[in-house]
Amino acid sequence: MQITAIYPGTFDPITNGHVDLVIRAARIFDRIILAVAENKAKTPLFDLQERLALANDAVADIPTVDVISFDNLLVDTARKFGATVILRGLRAVSDFEFEFQLAGMNRYLCKELETMFLTPSEKYAFTSSSSIREIAKLGGDVSAFVSDRVLLALRDKYSQSKR
Fold this sequence. Notes:
By secondary structure, this protein is α/β, with parallel strands linked by helices. About 40% of the residues lie in helices and about 20% in strands.
């Protein structure tokens, strides 16, 4: 029996911490669906097509990963792609309460879907897409936390905003 996990997020932008989690999950699951949320409630720095391209580039060397986008209920997307596990990252105890509530609601909506939490490698435990965006916006060096392509994309976005 093959087990497919879905890893949802806005990925604005995708970080090395996200990729680390995917690499480790790929050792556990047969297939990973990296699901980039459109999320109309947020105003992302990168539009959906840019986030998809950056995510595809970041996981291109992991053959068992597919990158998709979604703009509906996560449980519906999970069903569509045959996922039986939702993969979530927990950086700190403060993440747990929110993630625990999401896991409970997703289980209510789809009883056959389980949530699995992975913690990041220590070197990525304090990174988040929002902190990466803020540091990059202020001219700080985020090269240790994102791929070269994401770094260039961030520099391009923030140089455009200064024009």
